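Researcher: I'm preparing a figure for a lab meeting and need a structural model of a single chain. I don't have an experimental structure, so a prediction will have to do for now. The sequence is pasted below. Please return the structure as tokens so I can convert it later.
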Amino acid sequence: MVRVGGKLEGHSHRLAGVTVHYGDSPTGQGTVLLLPGIGLSYRAYTKLIGRLRSANFRVVSPHVPDLARVVEKSNITVTLRTVGIVAARLLELIDPEQPMFVIGHSLGGGIATEMVASHPESFFGMILANSIGAPDDEGGRRSPLDWAFSFPSDLMVTRDLPGTVSSVTSDVIRMLGPDSQPLMSLAHAAQRADLTKPFRVVKRIGIPTFAIHSDMDRVIRFRSFKKMVELLGAESKVVPGAHGWMLTEVRSIDQVVIPEIEKMRVAAYRKASPNGSLSSGAIST
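Model: Understood. Here is the structure written out token by token.
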């Protein structure tokens, strides 16, 4: 379980003959599924995880390249939707406490959107931070290599460079080694992603959603963020920082992310059934 602060204990399950690693923490009042950006794992998000644990959330975070390996092993094309399906299978084995919420950063935001659109009965709220998925008609299509490496390069644009490098070093090493092939598959999926339909499904179902962007993001264009907010009909906010702000900007985490996820938890319990338990019926569909 939790060792110190925002560090999660590593666990694993076998899916389709592939070992899927994930981080987990002790039980809490609800569970946050954390889906990291491309090339990163939960190890890079210690500040966010520490704040979520202080707010008494259980935090579960899978290693996304492992999810992509399961998809490839099943001879299925790696897309944000197929990776989300595998993530949902993993959650069934983990048995998270309800209510369950999801925070998706960058690539993780696209996977989160597909999961919520496909499994609305499982989630009581979603926060998307610098998420991919909205069409960028003016910018043209970006290369898979650009998608795979633009996020790590953008991490260098930060006020906490030593802290950022320390957080992501082990993830970058894996990205250049055993994770390179699944990461390229994920980069292709990111390049092709157009989540117009899932965004509209989430809006129609009425899952509480909050979208965040940062003012120095060089990975996700601002017009894409605005289009996503329009499609979701979601509340939104722009915070200071680069694409990887969620790794280091404690002030924005404390002032934006934690209040929003706590607000979603309060709303979930208010919609609980008369006996005080939570069920899929607590969400209006």
